[in-house]
Amino acid sequence: MRSRRAALVLLLPLLAAAVQTSAALPFIVLHGIGDQCANHGVATFTKLLSEWSASDGHCLYCTVSLLHSLPSKHSSAPIEMLVIKLLSSFPREIGSGTWDSWVMPLQQQADIVCNKVKEMEQLRSGYNIVGLSQGNLIGRAVVEFCDGGPPVKNFISLGGPHAGTASVPLCGSGIFCIIVDALLKLEIYSDYVQAHLAPSGYLKIPTDMEDYLKSCRFLPKLNNEIPEGRNATYKERFSSLENLVLIMFEDDAVLIPRETSWFGYYPDGAFDPVLPPQKTTLYEEDWIGLKTLDEAGRVKFVSVAGGHLGISKGDMRKYIVPYLVDRSSSKTLWWSISDLVGVTWHAARELALGLTESDGAVLGSLSS
Asked: Where on the tree of life does the source sit, at the highest rank (predicted)?
């Protein structure tokens, strides 16, 4: 009798779920700098979200022939010649997305993703975006700039430098980082660096706002910061999101400041204090519609433990998965008895044997 009752207790929630479930929209994952879709962390992250939400997940990356991104061989500056020499030592085609995420201008990356989502038949009725670090800026550019693209319903951002960052993301000591260091010596807002180092497009030095607004090629446009260049369409498109989930990592040492994940940042002209998002001019004057979204209850400010992108499985389930399900469209789904018995047996076995899932970080504490 007890075993029958136990089985019934396990079956009831499954039967209830079987009567009606929500149709899930597809989603895309946009990885961070120096990463690639084939890497274990990103691949596992995408797979788990797809399984847990019962939605179709796709990790997208940007690639281009390296020949198109090489500096001019007519450059005379010694440091530019060093960059040319180092770049020329690599294969002409880097298909993983790792290299391009560093050296391809962000607008070009966004244009590639825009074209990809327009070509994907399964996204035609709408889709969700999950952004990782720098990938969030690409995702927002797709929302704001992509003419004729399918509608984006929910945007889930993990560790995104939305208001900029006062330091280039950590790199390391490899050959890529030698090239990055060489580029940085050319001045971050120079035309050359802006054209050959992706993070320069969102590096925002609060004590050098004049050069930032004048010469930074990407973030000022994305955030509608240029007074004479504000575009109402960008605001209209961004504020049309159903939900904007902004996840900040409490021990983030990559983004400076970490509050940029919530659109918080330093005031113009100083590195102190860090302004909460609601106290920034971007929010108060509603340049991109963040205030509009927030006042409508469609912005979720989430803080999780861990370093940059070090999200746990538990936090993934709690803060990401609910927004990968289209709760506005329900359909009836009847499971077969064999499916129910199989799932119930699996659940009972795990409970009996104590086979609980590890809640360690899926992506790890990354520097991208």
From this structure: Eukaryota
Distance of alpha carbon 69 from alpha carbon 200, whole angstroms: 15
Q: Which of 50, 55, 69, 133 is catalytic?
A: 133
Residue burial 55-72, b: 16+ Cβ < 10 Å; e: rest: bebbbbbbbbebeebbbe
Question: Which residue carries 């990968």 as its tokens?
Answer: 324
Give catalytic status of residue 157 as yes or no.
Answer: no
| Banded model confidence at residue 79, pLDDT cuts 50, 70, 90 | low
Backbone dihedral region for residue 28 (phi beyond 0: left; psi -120 to 50: alpha; all else: beta): beta
Q: Which two tokens stand for residue 329?
A: 């469209």
Mean pLDDT of the chain: 80
Residue whose structure tokens are 């993983």: 96
The verdict on whether 211 is a catalytic residue reads no
Give the end-to-end CA distance of the chain in Å, rounded to a whole number. 55
pTM (predicted TM-score): 0.79
Length of the chain: 368
Contact 56, 31 (CB under 8 A): no
DSSP of 239-264: TT-SEEEEEEETT--SSSSGGGGGT-
Known catalytic residue: 272? no
Catalytic residue selected from 308, 326, 367, 368: 308
Q: Write out the CATH class of domain 2-61+106-167+224-353.
A: alpha beta
Q: How far apart are CA 188 and CA 200, in angstroms?
A: 6
The domain limits of the chain are: 2-61+106-167+224-353
If residue 117 lies in a helix (H) or strand (E), which one and from where to where? Answer: helix 106-119
- At 110-132, the pLDDT tens digits run 999 999 999 999 999 999 999 99
